[in-house]
Automatic annotation (TrEMBL):
This is Endonuclease. Residues 1-35 form the signal peptide. It comes from Pandoraea terrae. Pfam families: Endonuclease_NS. Belongs to the DNA/RNA non-specific endonuclease family. Residues 66-255 form the ENPP1-3/EXOG-like endonuclease/phosphodiesterase domain. Its cofactor is Mg(2+). Keywords: Endonuclease, Hydrolase, Magnesium, Metal-binding, Nuclease, Signal. Residues 65-255 form the DNA/RNA non-specific endonuclease/pyrophosphatase/phosphodiesterase domain. The active site is at H130 (proton acceptor). InterPro entries: DNA/RNA_endonuclease_AS, DNA/RNA_non-sp_Endonuclease_sf, Endo_G_ENPP1-like_dom, ENPP1-3/EXOG-like_nuc-like, His-Me_finger_sf, Non-specific_endonuclease. Mg(2+) binds at N160. It comes from the Bacteria. PROSITE patterns: NUCLEASE_NON_SPEC.
Length: 297
């Protein structure tokens, strides 16, 4: 185990009880919320990590603290439930000078039975999709850590390389403009027919990226299906929390959570590859959100 691995904080998520009724993984039941102190406080606004509002989702969760982002990892899905970052102008200036290393690796700090392995993704047809992007990482250590599979979900290749890459670029540009943003990125697992890679790693049905500007008190989230599509929605934090069953910002005022901030459209990102002509160009729609809302009714 190298020094950076030794320095990580990995802790199983304990909890305290608070009854609520929300739907996560497609099941609407009353379960306790799981809230606990975090060791990754530097990556969260006000030092407060999200609260999980479903015992089923909270099962086998472990917090993994990296140098530039924090992960809540699920041993059930073998993916992150979320990855959190504090993006600043200075951090992104430093990240511009970093070269992508592409050193994907399993996370040695997690138990073998709970973590994804490289072989799980082989010939799966899915990309290893970063939640905290490698292009956000300000130094070599953070760049290396971002390629941990604890920061990855199985992602549709066209989605990952075009729409999602465009969303990531737009958030970086916004952070450069605003100077200080908190970002939480993660998967949703909705519906009765969920796929698993190698019978182990669960494939998300949707992906989200929450952006919060604490100085201007503005917050919203990008939401997209995990498919070869250019369609996405911008939703309020309050709506996303209902869908995910997670209180992403426990200290955020309710009025901020319920107010829609029109986030910028994804930046064009062709990456030198020809776009699939069947894939629509980026367009903001309500279909994604409307579909997910039906699961709560």
């Amino acid at each position: 185990m190298n020094r950076s691995q030794q320095d990580r904080v990995v802790r199983k998520r304990p909890g305290k009880v608070r009854l609520q009724c929300l739907s996560v993984l497609g099941i609407a039941l009353a379960f306790p919320a799981w809230a606990a102190p975090t060791q990754c406080g530097a990556h969260y606004w006000a030092g407060a990590a999200p609260d999980i509002v479903n015992a089923r989702v909270a099962s086998q969760t472990r917090e993994v603290c990296f140098s530039a982002f924090g992960v809540m990892h699920s041993g059930v899905t073998r993916t992150p439930l979320w990855s959190a970052e504090h993006l600043t102008r200075e951090r992104l200036d430093a990240a511009r000078d970093m070269s992508r290393v592409n050193n994907f690796h399993s996370e040695p700090a997690l138990p073998l039975t709970e973590r994804a392995e490289l072989k799980d993704y082989v010939r799966s047809g899915y990309d290893r999709g970063h939640m905290a992007p490698s292009a956000d990482m300000p130094d070599a250590r953070a760049q290396q850590e971002s390629f941990s599979l604890s920061n990855m979900v199985p992602q549709n290749p066209e989605n990952n390389r075009y729409l999602w890459a465009g969303i990531e670029s737009s958030v970086r540009y916004l952070a450069q403009q605003r100077g200080d943003l908190y970002v939480i990125t993660g998967p949703l697992f909705k519906g009765a027919q969920l796929t698993q890679l190698n019978g182990r790693v669960m494939v998300p049905s949707q992906l989200y990226k929450i952006v919060y500007d604490p100085r201007r008190q503005q917050a919203s989230a990008y939401l997209a299906t995990n498919e070869a599509t250019g369609d996405y929605a911008v939703v309020t934090v309050a709506d996303l929390e209902k869908l995910a069953g997670i209180d992403f910002f426990p200290e955020m005022p309710a009025r901020v959570k319920s107010t829609l901030w029109r986030l910028p459209a994804p930046k064009a990102h062709e990456g030198g590859r020809k776009r699939d002509p069947k894939m629509p160009s980026y367009r903001e729609i309500n279909t994604v959100l409307d579909f997910l809302r039906t699961l709560l009714n």
